[in-house]
Structure formats: structure tokens, C-alpha cells
Amino acid sequence: MNFFVNLLYSGLGNLASYLAAHVLLCLLPAFYIAGAMTALIPKETVTRFLGRNTPKFISYPAAALAGSVLAVCSCTIVPLFAGIYKKGAGLGPAITFLFFAPAANILALIYTGGVIGPDLALARFILSLAFGIGIGIIMALIFRHEDVEHDKATDAMFAAQGKMRKVALVFLLVLVSLLLSGTLKVGLLTNTYSTFTIPISGMDKVQDFLYNLIPYDSAKGEEGVTAQGAILIGLLVFIGITSWLGMENIFDGFNKWTWISLSLVALTLLVAAVGMSPHAGGLDVLINGKFFGVLLALIVLGYILKTKLTEDETRDFLWESWKFVKQIFPLLVVGVFAVGVIRALIKPEWIESLAGQNTLLGNLAGVVFGVFMYFPTLVEVPIAQMFLSLGMHRGPLLAYLMADPELSLQSILIISTIIGRLKSWTYVAWVALFSTLSGLIYGAWVDGAGIGLVALYLILFLALLSGSLWFVNRRNVQKMAAVH
Amino acid sequence: MLTIKVLGSGCANCKRVEQIVRKIITDMSLEAEVIKVTDYNDITAYNILSTPGLVINEKVVSYGRIPSPAEVTTWITSALETANP
Questions:
Q1: Is the separation of the CB atoms in A449 and A441 below 8 Å?
Q2: Gap between the Cα atoms of A144 and A149, Å rounded
């Protein structure tokens, strides 16, 4: 019985510290950024580069860009993938898009950066870009003759032009700066400029109580819940309730709850930005640079929202953001809780012996786990953090992070209805290979291998790759010649 | 008689579009058939790049966003006029 209580504690503790520490300053703005991108960027600004007649050196990067900014939700991914494949730039860019969308969409990148570290988020982005385009080109070459046979339908679908309004662009940039001012760790933002004390006696007792309630072990990478964290969790619950009342029926018009929930979000971000230190006499509130940054960004956002955006834009923006929250947040909560439970069951020695070093086996283990386990969007991040704290090396960790979101049984099945089974499994094999390699290379870099050595690895790998591509290409040409 | 198709695999936005359409049909007391198209091959046949899509009498009137009830009413009215001049 005690065993189960412990498991429950571990799960709840993980959840509480997650909500208090990670969600607010990174995930909350991230949801709004994703919402703004979906609602305010016309799809045509990017899709017009995905037509048949676009040169390859434009269509591949454009496909990656489309994956990053347009596709946070499966509503967009699958139709856009099918469209690019069947009527647009063809199999290669479609695969690039498919690879890039889950690996490096804006939500995933922000969340990885906030939870695990900017270095891994950057590695995830750069390697996804390189490999997404690489795998796209490989697939296009392997299945070249089939791509030629593809229906030569007109480009009409991709011809539409779209222009983003300047105001919408500014709005997006301010949202990003809100995120940055809340999360960047530079002196200007983290320095404290003034302090005041809220005289509530016994705040230190509250803090001790919280630490006792949710015990933690910093040696294992666990985090406790601070008094500030408890306040924030309370505010989050209120945001949840008011958003439900204000956003769910937003298509019938804005109501007072819409504005109350938005004000609560602003308040929460401000509370999360300041530093708090409880002591016997009360609660010291430290006004730091973050606070001013967040405050400034919020004021600008409020101004644009009130006066510059049309009612339709505001409504779409709020609805899309709320939709992401509704779609992803509950799964994330369940996922984080489950991670907390599982974490109590896994012995660090297991992970350490399997993937504690940057070995081929360790990287393969990361990839296999990523391919066969399916986790909802973003849940891969807390899982990765669990592995990290249990002693996994950063190399295999990246291999896992690369493989997990791209490949799951569910997505493979959907893809194969569009491009066929052979192509899907070829794609899976390439992703597994590339993920393993990216883990190995990144791991070598983390272990302190010189830039030269890492570059050598990369060059060797690229040479091998282009050699085999050349071979496949030549065989294809011969085959085509034989047919004709 | 109108044929209205809602294209989409069943994500939140697609359901929302279907709701809006059904409400308008009831409000205008029209005779119309609302079909949900969920198969991706059928959806891409309509040349749309993102769901939800809305098709009235085989003509795509909107995709990739949730149209407002006012817009949908306009489209339905003009489709009715084209059908019965």
C-alpha cells in the first residue's frame, strides 16, 4: 500500500513542480505564439513556394518553413502533406515538411528550450533542418521514376498569393519578445532593481509546509514547489475556468469572461516574472528586469489587440490559442504525472548502463524507444528530461528526441494511405538512421570532441551519403534507360 | 436542395464548422444534406491545403479556418440563387 502512495506522490510532485516552474513563462506565451501564427499568417505566404515549378533550392527550405510555422496541428499537417505530394513540389519537399513539422514546430522548440536547455533546442532545430531536407532529397531520388509519373495537374492550388499584414507581424514579434524577456537568462533581465515586502507573517512556514507536502531530492534533478509556485498554480486554475467560460463560445461573440481570462493571463505572467523569497516577517517581492520586460510587452500587445487587429483576427487568434491549450495541455498534464510515477520505478543504473555513454548502442536504444513508444505532442519533452536526470547522456537523448515525434505507428499508418507502404517504411528506416547518427555526432560534441573531429564525422557521413545517392541515381537512370 | 460538405478528419475546428452549418440550415429552415468527408483522398480531391473545408454544391467556399455564421449564410443564399434563378 505504501508503495502505491509513494508512486502517487512522485507523480503529483512532478506535476506540481512542472506547473509551477516550467509552464508559465515558456509554455503560456508559446501557446499564444502558436495561436497567432495559425490565425494571422495567411497560409498562401508560404504555400506559394511549394508548387511544381518552384526551383528545388527554394521549395525544400520553404517546406521546412511551412512545417515550422504553419503546422502545429494535424488539421494542417496531413492535408498539406498530401497536397504538396500529389499536386505540388512532389515527394521530396513533402517528406521534408513531414519530418520538420513535429520535430521543430514552434511549440516543441520553445518547450524543449525551456525545460531541457537552449543547447538541445538549437541542436534539435539545426539537425532537423539538415536531416529533413536530406531525407527529402534521398526519398525523391530513390522513388524518382514514380515521382515523374505523378499527375501533372496544374499548380493552381499553390498559385494563390498571400500577404501578411504588418500589424500582425509586429504582434507576433512582440509575443516572441514576451517569451524571450521571460526566459532569457541575461543580467539585464535577471538583476533585481527594487524590492518590497508584503507583510504576511508565517510565509516561511508555508514554504516549509510545501516542501514537506511535496518532498523532493535535488540530487535526482527533482524540484520542489515554492510559495511562488503555489500561487501560480492557483492562478492557472483560475485561468482555466475563466478561459472555458470566455473562449469556448467565442464564435458567439466576446463576453466578459474573455477579457477576465486574458487579464488573468497577464497577471500570472507578471507574478511569474518577479522573484519572491518568503521569510518569517512576510514575503519579499523582487522586481527584476524580467518584470519590466514582460510588462512592456504586455502593454504593447494589449494596445495592438484593442486598437489594431480586426475583430475577426482577434477572435481567430484567441480561438486558435485556446484550441491548442485544450488539445495539448490535458495530455501534457497526464503525461507529466505518468512520467513522475514511472520515474519512481526506473533505477538510474539501468539507464546509465544502457545509455549513460555516447555509444552506438546507447543511441540506438534511444531511437528504438522513440519509434516504438507513442507520446502525445510535447510529452516527449518531460520524458526526455526524466531520462536526463536519470543519467542518460545528451547524445542518446537527442537521438530519442529526434526519433520520437516523427515516428509513431499512428502517423506511419496515415502516411502510408497517402504515399503507399513501401515509401513509408523507407522513410521510417531513414529517420531511424539519421536520428542515431545525429545523437552520436551531438554526443561527441558534448563530450568535448573538437570542432574538427565533429566536422570530420559530418564530412565522412555526407561523403558516404552522397556516394550511395550517386549509386542509386545511376541505377535509376540505367533502369529508366532499360525501360525506354 | 443543397448539398453541403464539411471536409476534415474530425479535429476540433471541423466539428465547429459542421455545428455552424447545421445551425444556419435549421434557422433558415432549408432542405439540405450535410455530409462529413473524412477520407484524405476524397479531401485532397477538392484542392484544399488545410482542413476544415466547406463545400456547397461541389464548390469550395472556404478552407483552413472557421468561417463566421454571417459568411456561411451569404454563401448558402447565393448558392440557392444560382440553383433556382
A1: no
A2: 9
Alpha-carbon gap, residue A243 to A248, rounded angstroms: 7
C-alpha cell at A261: 481570462
Rounded CA separation A318/A323 (Å): 8
The residue among A401, A407, A406 whose CA lies nearest residue A438 is A401
Cα–Cα separations (whole angstroms), residue A311 to A178, A181, A306, A462: 23, 28, 9, 51
C-alpha cell at A249: 463560445
**Most confident listed range (A44-53, A412-421, B69-78):** B69-78
Distance between CA A145 and CA A139 in Å, rounded? Answer: 11
**C-beta of residue A116 within 8 angstroms of C-beta of residue A388:** yes
Nearest CA in chain B to A322: B12
Please check the confidence at residue A360 and state whether its pLDDT lies above 60: yes
For residues A379 and A328, give the distance between their C-alpha atoms in angstroms, rounded to a whole number. 9
Q: Please give the C-alpha separations between residue A228 and each of A16, A114, A190, A210, A237, in angstroms, as whole numbers.
A: 12, 18, 16, 11, 15
C-alpha span between A253 and A246 (Å, rounded):
9
**Which among B12, B43, B68 is the nearest to A79, CB-wise?**
B43
Q: How far is B58 from chain A (nearest CA, A)?
A: 16
Q: What is the pLDDT of residues A297-339, one digit of tens each?
A: 999 999 998 888 888 888 888 888 888 888 788 888 888 888 8
Determine the residue of chain A that is closest to B10 in CA distance.
A75
Q: Give the count of beta carbons closer than 10 Å to the beta carbon of residue A7.
A: 16
Determine contact: B20 vs chain A, CB below 8 A: yes
Of A43, A323, A327, Cβ closest to residue B50: A43
Amino acid at residue number B8: G
Q: Count CB-CB contacts under 10 A for residue A215.
A: 11
- The pairing of beta strand B2-7 with beta strand A192-198: unpaired
Euclidean distance between CA atoms A293 and A298, whole angstroms: 9
Distance CA A80, CA A71 (A): 9
* Subunit contact A75:B41, Cβ cutoff 8 A: no
Q: Which of A74, A79, A86 sits opposite B48 (nearest CB)?
A: A79
Domain range summary for chain B, segments of one domain joined by + = 2-83
Half-sphere exposure of A356 (CA within 13 A, CB side): 10
CATH number of B2-83: 3.40.30.10
Q: CB A61: neighbour CB atoms within 10 A?
A: 17
To 10 degrees, what angle do helices A256-273 and A28-40 make?
A: 130
Please give the DSSP secondary-structure letter assigned to residue B31.
Answer: -
Query: Tell me, what's the ipTM?
Result: 0.72
- CA proximity to A139, closest of A460, A470, A430, A396: A430
Residue with cell 525501360: A483
CB atoms B44 and A73 under 8 Å: no
